[in-house]
Protein 1
Amino acid sequence: MFESPLVDPHILRRPLPPAIQGILPAIAADGGRHRARTALAILGVGFDYLTAHLTDVDAALGVDSPGPDELGALVHAARDACSTAAPRVPQQHVISRGLLRRWTQLLAGNAEPRLIRYDLTRGTAKLRTVGQVGYVRDFVSIDSETTERIWQRVEDRLPAAIAAAEDGTISSSPELTQVVREAIALHFTRNPQTAEVHAILWRETQARQIGAIAGTPLAREAFRRQHRGIIPAGQEALRLGAEAVLAHLMEAEASGALFRLIVEDRFERALELLGQAALETVTPDDPEDEFLIGDVPAITFDAKLNAVGVREGIALTAGDTVMLPLGPRLLVALGPSLRAASLPSAAVDRLNQLQVRAAQAYVCCRPDARVANQLAIWRLPRSGGA
């Protein structure tokens, strides 16, 4: 040990460092579920650092501790979720394939059903198969095979829920109603704007967090850890300590691991927020009217602000509703009560315009749908390509 006044003689005797203390509530609340938010907390501290303190964490949690073995399993699961060696699925659909198939038609001369993909940047419409649209390459670039399994649990049950919504029996099935809520949460979370918003927020908050942490014991602790027990002296040393606190997150952001955990956590939180929210099933009055589906299909809307989607600042439960098309003639939305409603043509057009406005790059419709003729009118000027 250093014989220096810069060394804190109590550092090795402190029961739990501030960083470890800070994640105790997340670990206690996990309850063996291995939630993404727990993995995020562990990632922020560092896998090896937490492992070195597992015995102390177990003692500090007392009756709320899951036990040393489960604590070790939590660290192991968090490490696996951030591993660049974990299996990946490069082509990840942001619109469920089973959902997209509902907008397809089998056309003469084609062996496989097609839908129209309307490019909102170029203003062009092309016939495409389900496999050619609705996906983002490496949307989750780390451990994406695991996230795909999470999404699949919802997608496998969605056809039965859609069928019940169409025949009017869903109101008598709490289980299928919950599947629809999960489908809304899934498509709200797993969309290209999630990555866009994450990148913006990360840039905006990183510097602010460093400044905030520099004034806390966390920065002091991290500096001492990094410099073999030396006490930080001055603002620059505290800033270096704050950067050390965020070092694990910065590395995880660069690898894609941070986004992978944030996406899963966002999905878990969306499920909690939707809870037992009532759903409204909506169909067009006119048999010729149909709904579009965009590459950001689950859209939030605030009528007072005239704002739609997370890109315009409307979070999942912040606006008036969140809507998801389940077929050309079926849309579900959060409503005041579980009921069915039908809409006149003007209202259907309004909802379709919101899909166009919220979309990242394109919307889809059936090849012979009347709504295809309106797309050039509704398209807003956009930059870039897709």
Note: The chain is about 45% helix and 15% strand.
Protein 2
Amino acid sequence: MSSGNMGTTTPATETPAGQPTIQRQGRGRGPMIAAIAVVIVVILVVVVGWQAGWFKSSSSSSSTTGVTGCTLPSPGTLKGEGSTLVAPLMDQWASSYWTTMIVSYDSAGSSAGIQAVSTKVVDFGASDAPLTPQQRSNAPGILTVPESAGGVVPIYNLPSLKAPLNFNGSVLAQMFDGQITSWNNTALQALNPGVSLPPNNVIPVYRTGGSGTSFIFSSFLTLENPYWALHYNKSTAWPTGLPGTGASGNGGVATTVSTTTYALGYVDLNYALTTQGIGVGSVENSHHNFIHASVLNTLSALVDSNVTLPKGNGDWYNVSFLNAPGPNDYPITSLTYVLVYQDLSAAYSTYTLNSAENLVDFLHWVLTTGQTWSGDLSYVPLPTSVTSQANVTLNSMTFNGSPVPVCVPTGGGAPA
């Protein structure tokens, strides 16, 4: 099942929540057309949501491993570090979880999150890039747990442009590696017939440091452009020696593009929709349709990909939802991950059973109640096919040789 924006060149206008805005006509048959459009949007949401499992009972784990009847977590603190892509959603979770628990999150980048959890200075790491085999070897006993999903989008600053630009992976690769230097290059112009592109030079803006967003974006360029695949490939570190300006975090890239005329960057959809002064490009998918990213067509990409996920302690490095097979799927879609240790008593000498329960309960809450914030922040609520396996992974976490008792708090902590 595929859904999302149905055109190939002119996407629907997006609100910050990622849903199509219905433009009402002023006279005549306008109200009837608008009503029909609303019905169509509602049907799309219901159909895609049903397939994703939004309307099925959630896979809460409170009944699977023990304690029942709790309403509040025990007092304590949790610290996480990592991905800037997921930071707006992680911050929402941290501020919305029960006041008996203090959850802090440092959005220092995916590589920093991997390093922090590997050296056990945080309770959990967050990364948009799965661990490499070497990183898994350096952190034995670590688990990979999907916690959200989203789309990475090209953004640009061309003040004279009104409609979104069309891109494909090959052209984006050439614009970022310096083979295409001007905005009116014939290759980009061919993707945007009838659009007047300026002759000014392209100013690429890329992520500094180790970035999961760079990993997702460079993975897409690797699939789409043989030259990029041969010389740069996929990596959390942006290739050295390429032209442009570096910026820290998704927020830094979005701000730099918004303040630099003729700039081109890449960020998570949330940052693109909440930053003034930038355009958000449509990207050609596997059916040669140009798709403007939204919550619906990134969710559709997850569902249509039908990826068999590894176990939590397995190798996730080559898991990919890029170029999903549906005709209206957004092609640069990816999961983001929480990284935690399976044996908490072995990993942390300072942990008590209460510490272990607080971490496991918070992560179960993220996979259930926490998902209800995703759509409003332009992230994808995870399908039950993903959350059910993720909950199994959390249920495998132990303390002193026994499963950690699970009690997902109920009775609050959800959007009003």
Note: Confidence is low (pLDDT under 50) at residues 1-69.
Protein 3
Amino acid sequence: MKTLLLLFTLTVASFLSNAQIINGNFEAPCTSPIPDISQTLGWVGVFSEEIVAPNAGLRSAKLKTVNSPEINQLISWGSDTISGLILQSVNGPINNPSALTVSFAYKYTRVGLDTGLVLINLYDTLTVDPNDDVLLFQGYAEFTASTTSWGNMTIPVQQISQVTGPVNQFYFVAYASYNLLPKPGTTLWLDNITANGLSGIEENKDFNAFVFPNPATDVLNIKMNEDIASVLITALDGKFISNENASLINISELNSGMYLYTITTVSGKVAKGNFVKN
């Protein structure tokens, strides 16, 4: 079972492949279903685009821990104090997982004894049974001191399981506050995230699906100009929720909160995003 433990670290380019982290420089903004939270293409979570003094280009990602009953109600975090959070997954296979590294630029403002975290998880399978997914490789970095200027970091992964098998999913997550008592104001900035050693399915940045309404209560509608092969819905921690091949998805039985979707067409194109269940 995939857990939220150690979901941090980033950077994905490719050896021979065409799959890579989408929008690792955060230069492509998009609309978020969460009020007052701006987001960027390819990424989901609780963060905003930062246009003040990015490491490069015009934007970076700003993960700020906040106290917000409104956001807690929307995503069912469980507490009004919500850590800044960002995540993205990429489907493999990853042919040489032990050689994979993630690189990124970062800044960190620490409040109290907060600890920030960036994590890479590599899993073996992508079946409909979440209990069949085994964590094979992992890399992470912790942030325990404030920095006033941008720094750079590269994180390798290490094998953490004696279980062998193909690595079929790269999963990145970062938190501004990875501790039991997060402090509002703690902020982690990320920019220029790349990964070396990732191979897999090509994701077409120009391909989009129209998913509505968002937030939704009973049914999620999907409009696109190609036939749908599958619609995979997962929780924020990667836990499997459902996998269907329809343009109308019944979500009435889901708990309130934020979920991720991955839509694959019959021609192999992939669109990813998130929605809020009321």
Note: The chain has two domains: 29-196, 210-277.
